[in-house]
Amino acid sequence: MKLKLTLPLAVFLMLLTVALCTGSQLFLLLSILILLVVAAAFIAVFWASATLTVDGQLSGETVYRGDDVVLSLRVHHRGLLPVAPLLLELTDPSGNRERDIRLKNMPNKVQSMRLPIHAAHVGVFSVGLHSCTVEDLLGLVRKKVPFQKTSFELLVLPRTFDIEPLKLAPGDPGSELMARATEDLSAPSDVRNYQPGDAMKKIHWKLSLRKRELMVRKFDEPILQDVLILMDCSRPPSWGHPQAEADLRDTLLETAASVLTAQLSTDHQFRLPLLGSHPVDVVKTMGLPIAMDYLSRVDFSETDRFERVLAIESSRLRKVGCVVIISARLNIPMVDIMIRIHRAGPNIRLYLVTFAPDDENVLPLIGRLRQASIEVSYVTPDL
């Protein structure tokens, strides 16, 4: 609660002093009138704030970047003494800024409104009515009433785009070779009871005669190579523009989401380590909804340099046929590590998120990568 009583208190003391010194009833009445005005301001503000009720509803709590949601509010107070129009303080996901809305002065009536909220960036945002400020007509007394039930969590998911299929390192078994391996009768691993539809050439005739029931050979299936997806979870460069960092974050997350979506339609497992305040490994068995949820909650607070992350993951490449690297920066140590990973066997595709694909400082590094047969793709953020 904030009070602005300096001026009315000074006027009250002056009038009271003059009334006592001169014995004037007029000055005494004026001092009493000022006292009553201040008291009425207190009563009006506390009455309105005590009877203030706000109901809120969000049209959707999960949307994709670029979509809009609608916040519906119903505000009502039963104060009889007049107060200034209520001031609503709303949280907005557009840069997480706050905006204020003044209501009309309508005591004892319900005021309803529908406010559009634009989901400009990927992430988790607190949206809704944060608090309401009640003030008297003269601005002497002000009280802020916080609200919790009218604040909602808005999850903004990344959008996806089409990408080229990944090329795994030579020697990738693939679905066709796996199917042929199931027909290879030279490597049985176990037997089981016959089931309708089993091929006749898989029947173990000698064992079937001995057990007097049809037994079928089981064969080992080759293990498919995995895909490792590495996204730079440290704070992106700002590029000297207030919105550049947020745009880079969106593009990094949407590139990773696009790779995940494409890999879900293949037979290969994938792993995406997300570092930061809440590290987690996203894997194929989680499914797309959970994977997108984890992606949207990345806060880009990782303090380790990305080249160190690449160096650590380069020692865990067993069964990995392709490494997808998503980053908004490129330097010499990163290039050296990527070339070393590629020489160890896996193919590499680099998604470089940048506003300047023709940067003279980056082009020589891109040339080294392409000379080492490493695939490089540019992704430019939407402005």
How many strands?
18
Average residue-wise pLDDT: 84
In CATH, what is the class of the largest domain? Answer: Alpha Beta
Question: What is the count of structural domains?
Answer: 3
Order of helices and strands: EHHEEEEEEEEEHEHEEHEEHHEHEHE
CATH-defined architecture of the largest domain: 3-Layer(aba) Sandwich
Low-pLDDT windows of residues: 172-187
Helix amount, in percent?
Answer: 25-40%
- Biggest sheet statistics: 7 strands, mixed
Structural class of the helices, strands and pairings?
Answer: alpha/beta
Give a description of the structure:
The protein has 383 residues and is an alpha/beta fold. The chain folds into 3 domains: 52-157, Immunoglobulins (Immunoglobulin-like, Sandwich); 185-219, no CATH class; 226-379, 3-Layer(aba) Sandwich (Rossmann fold), CATH 3.40.50.410. It is built from 9 helices and 18 strands. The strands form 4 sheets. Strands 1, 3, 5, 6, 8, 9 and 10 form a 7-stranded mixed beta sheet that branches.
